[in-house]
Amino acid sequence: MPARPPVHLLDADPDLGALLPEHRVADARRRLVARVHVVRRGEWRDERLHRAGSDQLGLLVLDGVIAREVLLSDNVSTELLGAGDLLRPWQDHNPSQLLPIAVRWTVLEATTCAVLDDGFARRLAPFPEVHTMLIDRVTERAHRLALTQAISQLNGVEHRIHALLWHLAERWGRITPRGTAISMTLPHRVISQLVGARRPTVSTALGQLADAGTIERLPDGGWLLVGTPVGAPSLATRRFVHTRGRRTSDPALRLRHADAGHS
Is the pTM above the cut of 0.85? Predict the structure, then answer.
């Protein structure tokens, strides 16, 4: 594959300059230039990933979709990564882990990354505002992981899948006259790894959701979500969480909470 020209990072990802004062944007745009790396669909096994030094900031995804699969015993758990995510794949190969796992990277859609190497890190030093935005991206990824974990614990596989699709629509969806469309093609195997279920069970649950009219399969292999998003806690759940959060050792206070719950 021919080499791609470098990119001005603030052109490729303008949100990274959100904290910069207006008079510094042009200088940051001129100086923050990064090499580009393109990855084809399929398993990502570039040996250069394992040789990268700890002084490299990482790879910033500009477009595409990557699945990071964690293999533990006979189970696989998957995280989907896309535009805006900051990756450091070389951190996955740590021989000192007490719980042995394997990590596999699979490119679901051809992916373009900006290479934030040690040279880029030096150019970034005068612009801490952009560095802060990169840290925000890592935090956002952690929040999405926590939400995916919560989705995987919902009762009922069809409920998990429905919530997962709305979660994915936040990043990869578009509004259409008929509903919210997700153009990304997800094999049933990947969906099963995202929701913590077996593939045959996922196929059955997808059929049930389609029969209920809440989702439709699109010609491009994506999904159409019909209706309103799911996931808001029910009134009963909110009451339970509120009471649990205020649990106390004072019997009198416990009694008052109990009485309030029956009123």
Answer: no
